[in-house]
UniProtKB/TrEMBL annotation, chain A:
<dbReference type="Pfam" id="PF02738">
    <property type="entry name" value="MoCoBD_1"/>
</dbReference>
<dbReference type="InterPro" id="IPR012368">
    <property type="entry name" value="OxRdtase_Mopterin-bd_su_IorB"/>
</dbReference>
<protein>
    <submittedName>
        <fullName>Twin-arginine translocation pathway signal protein</fullName>
    </submittedName>
</protein>
<dbReference type="InterPro" id="IPR008274">
    <property type="entry name" value="AldOxase/xan_DH_MoCoBD1"/>
</dbReference>
<dbReference type="InterPro" id="IPR046867">
    <property type="entry name" value="AldOxase/xan_DH_MoCoBD2"/>
</dbReference>
<dbReference type="InterPro" id="IPR000674">
    <property type="entry name" value="Ald_Oxase/Xan_DH_a/b"/>
</dbReference>
<dbReference type="InterPro" id="IPR037165">
    <property type="entry name" value="AldOxase/xan_DH_Mopterin-bd_sf"/>
</dbReference>
<dbReference type="Pfam" id="PF20256">
    <property type="entry name" value="MoCoBD_2"/>
</dbReference>
<feature type="domain" description="Aldehyde oxidase/xanthine dehydrogenase a/b hammerhead">
    <location>
        <begin position="216"/>
        <end position="305"/>
    </location>
</feature>
TrEMBL record, chain B:
<dbReference type="InterPro" id="IPR036010">
    <property type="entry name" value="2Fe-2S_ferredoxin-like_sf"/>
</dbReference>
<dbReference type="InterPro" id="IPR001041">
    <property type="entry name" value="2Fe-2S_ferredoxin-type"/>
</dbReference>
<keyword id="KW-0411">Iron-sulfur</keyword>
<dbReference type="GO" id="GO:0016491">
    <property type="term" value="F:oxidoreductase activity"/>
</dbReference>
<dbReference type="GO" id="GO:0046872">
    <property type="term" value="F:metal ion binding"/>
</dbReference>
<keyword id="KW-0001">2Fe-2S</keyword>
<protein>
    <submittedName>
        <fullName>(2Fe-2S)-binding protein</fullName>
    </submittedName>
</protein>
<dbReference type="InterPro" id="IPR006058">
    <property type="entry name" value="2Fe2S_fd_BS"/>
</dbReference>
<keyword id="KW-0560">Oxidoreductase</keyword>
Amino acid sequence: MRNSSIINVSRRGILGGMGAGALILAVGLPRPGRAQEEPEFGRDAMPNGWRDDPKVFIAIAPDGIVTVTCHRQEMGQGVRTSIAMVVADELGAEWENVRVTQAPGDEEKYGNQDTDGSRSLRHHFMPLRRAGAAARTMLEQAAAEQWGVDVSEVKADGHKVRHAGSGRTLGYGELAAAAMDLDVPARDSLTLKDPSEFRYIGKNSIGLVDNMDITTGTTTYGIDVKREGMLYAVVARPPVYGGTVASLDDSAALAIDGVEKVVRIEPSEFPTEFAPLGGVAVIARNTYLAMKGRDALEIEWDNGPNADYDSETYRETLSQAANSEGGKVLRDEGDYDEAAAGAAQTVEAEYYIPHLAQAPMEPPAAVVEIKDGRAEAWACVQAPQVTKLRLAERLGLDESAVRVNVTLLGGGFGRKSKPDFVLEAGILSQAMDGAPVKLTWTREDDIHHSYYHTVSVEKMSAGLDEGGKTVAWRHRTAAPTIGSIFAPDPMQKLPFELGMGLLNMPLAIENVRAENPQAPAHVRIGWYRSVSNIPHAFAIQSFAAELAEAAGRDQKEYLLELIGPPREIDPTNQGDVWNYGENPDVYPIDTGRMAAVVEAAAEGIEWGRDMPEGQGLGIAGHYSFVSYVAVAAEVEVVDGEVRVPRVSIAIDCGAHVNPDRIRSQMEGAVIMGVGQALMTEVTFAEGRAVQDNFDTYLIPRMEEAPKRIDVHFVGNDAAYDRPLGGVGEPGLPPVVPAITNAVFAATKKRIRRLPIADQLRS
Amino acid sequence: MVKLVINGEERRFDGDQDTPLLWVLRDEMGLTGTKYGCGIAACGACTVHIDGAPSFACVTPVGVLEGAEVTTIEGLSEKGDHPVQEAWRELNVAQCGYCQAGQIMQAAALVEQYDTVTDEDIDAVMSANLCRCGTYPRIRAAVKQASAAKSGSKAAEAQ
């Protein structure tokens, strides 16, 4: 039973005492209404909500050019194209006359701009359709007025308004000024297009709006911004989280021709949230000289309380926690202990998932300039509003005196949700009397000072009855929480982390317990594409395969049995107060859809075929970001080396806006997952990240990418009256267990520790 | 001081001759199409052509380039209509797009060098260039398409 008082209590309990962080952490948690009111969900519950005002999002020039303002950040998901498609379709615009401009951070004007959680289209599809429809209606009204006819006699389409009786037409450009002077029609008076009339939405008719610029090198990412008189900076940061500068000799650096200044950046209060780590900046005439100056700094560090952080030792710490009684019980159905004790067979497995760095190809970079008491930033940020707020605070300016312009993001994956690098650029501009300063993170900076994906031990235990059916299931997850960057370490996962596959686990098992023992954080923990779904899906889907093996059953058939009969699950009944911020009545978990993607992925890989020695098939399915994805992988293992020649991935994300970008997100997720299965990890020794750059922090290359990736669309992709699912993240979680399950099929060796690296080499 | 030709124009640089070509292009010449990704020749985001050969601008000191001809993404074609660029757009290869200038420069050299391009060639050559978004399947397809377009136009010229 869901009600706002439960949510209220949970929110207080979880967010109480979190200060400034509460604002951020509240993102996506259902927002309880005032007394006696229904709680708000989804787009309504996001900070600053949504807007659908056509005058905010659409400008039409006298020459007919329609400019759509994109208020969500482009980082490769194709959102600039998709948002323009939605608006243009409802507007009745001709695509060749549509342009896209990027909004600065201004949520009062644009509504929520945090581009994360796979929710840009899920939350803004309908408001943007209404914006387009409203503008279309205003163009019709303007034309009808000009002709002195009733508005019902005119129709806007194909970039012009036509009067049916006379055949007269007026172009959008001719009508623009008069139309945009009109009042915006009431929301409930708007007529949205019937999906059968869509020309762009759901079609593959539109290429990327930035295609020409990207292929000719004329795009502007954060790292590309240039301002008159700009200086260039890099920062030497404490190598250990929480460290400080003990002593500094900057004489050699300052002796370099072209090095302008060395600036101490004071460490921020810990935990640092989105504030800089502190350190020493070198400001110079170009990036190379700044790096050369940084190399010449002589710094002794006080490494602080995390100086002993060591990945091997910490894995044992997590393992101990995960193997102990007394962890916080978060979900408890039936009687696990009794069912396990009475089981014919018990199975246990412990899984380890390492830290990861998002490592977007464009490292963090930003330019800030301060003039006449106003600061202006140009930056590759996923969350421009919080960037503006934190930059204003750090520079001692009013929010209204700060502007954050958003560039293209050369990848984000969660790293660029945190604007610490923009604050560094602001501090350095201030130190240079407001001159524009470009702050660039080198790749080493990026790997050494990421907001890392958490590190987990997942301990799974189960009991099977005589028929091999799973009758008891216990999942213990031990992992430092993202909450630890916002407040004194909470030691337990937050609702949004628990709701990523742990508490909302939809398998049909009678006796289920989920526990979360404590785990301290020693580095900055942050969002990484699909977040806690990564460890949870790996553990659950690996374990499901282990149970199939224990029961002597086919992996796919057993998984389908665990998923059980088609039914709708309200995750809040299982202790998941979050449900991706969505209303569980609107977004229940539909196990029929889950089973359907598993079937589709299996069919796509020709499940059940005989495999030669050293080759195997594996499968996994996972629900995340209110979408359903399953992956079937084919692997071959030669001399302990794993190759993944072929992957079949099936997604049901509800109705499709931009099918080609859904496809590309699935392709990309498969390749990122291949990396996580085979090679990608960050480890720590003496508090420092061991890996430095792409020579040691390994991500897949062309030769390691599957030669064949088949993307299958499942479900009703034209159900535009139904709520949309996420796309950017849900592809990733099932990829890794599908691969490691296939490795088992090929070698009989169970991978319980990621990445595989050299585990299979003799 | 070094004199070199960048995208057909003679340019000079009299700063620190150890400065990698990458930073000369980006910070001094205003050519930001060539990207920084690693600084150690491990990711290929900085790939340019030096005297026609694909090269990592991030590890090439500008001082060794006296008289060299450098082509960057901005100079690959006048109208952005190199077969590789066209294939990239037709197949919507890019996601974030950041690594794509380097990918395109690497691919342009590859299709220039071989009349037909095999999967093995693509593995061997394009593995120098990292893409974190995972656009490899489309890069593979686009390289093949560009190679076919190129040999098609060669065949047409020969007739």
